[in-house]
Each structure stands twice: as C-alpha cells, then as structure tokens.
TrEMBL record:
This is Chemotaxis protein. SMART domains: REC. The lineage of its organism: Bacteria, Pseudomonadati, Pseudomonadota, Betaproteobacteria, Burkholderiales. Residues 2-117 form the Response regulatory domain. GO terms for biological process: phosphorelay signal transduction system. It comes from the Bacteria. Keywords: Phosphoprotein. The modification 4-aspartylphosphate is found at residue 52. InterPro entries: Bact_response_regulator, CheY-like_superfamily, Sig_transdc_resp-reg_receiver.
Amino acid sequence: MKVLLVDDYRTTTDLLADVACSMGHAVTRAYSGAEALAATGGEGAFELILLDIGLPDINGHELCMRLRASEKYASRRIFSITAHDDLHERFDMSCFDGQLTKPLSLGDFESLLSGKKEAERRDHR
C-alpha cells in the first residue's frame, strides 16, 4: 500500500516509516504541510495518509480539507495524528476517517496498516 506520513517531528515520522516499510508498504515522508501537498500532487494517489494536526505551516485539519476537496483524495483514507484530545471542540474532524493519539501505540499503527482498525471501526458503528 502507498502510505504518506506527515509530521514535523522527524523522529516520529521516521519511526512510523520504518515500521510501515518493514510491513511491506511503500512510504513517503513529509515534514510539513507544503511537503505533503507537493507529494500528493504527484502521479498516482496514496491509499493511506496520516496527518499530524500541529504542523508548522498548514495545520493538519486544513491540509485534510484541501485534500478532500480534490477528486483524487475525496475518498482516500486519511487519519489524524495528535497529542491533543480536545480536537473535536476546535475543529470539525469529520473530514478524517479516524484519529491516532500520541504517544502512538505501534500496535494501533500496525492494525491500521493491516486494515484491522478499519474493520473494528465498522463493527462498532
């Protein structure tokens, strides 16, 4: 699966990329909103995007809204990554398919990459 990881904290991004690559996924890293927009503008489309909300240039919510406005990413899986638990009070998070909370559980991340997290979400609706 083609995965885009977007987080300005390089250690987090690089660790998640290593885990995803070890599971056989093709990973692109972006450390800012601008880098993410450049990556998503290329050929093909990412099947899964993880966006940090607290990016230095464009917040992850705004970035998600921009991606959702494009036909290419309107229905792709996009998850937020954040250390804040009050995002629903600050943003309409309905543009995201879900949220991973920092500190990130590698088990949750691996489940998301394998599709198990999606199945759990569908079962509990």
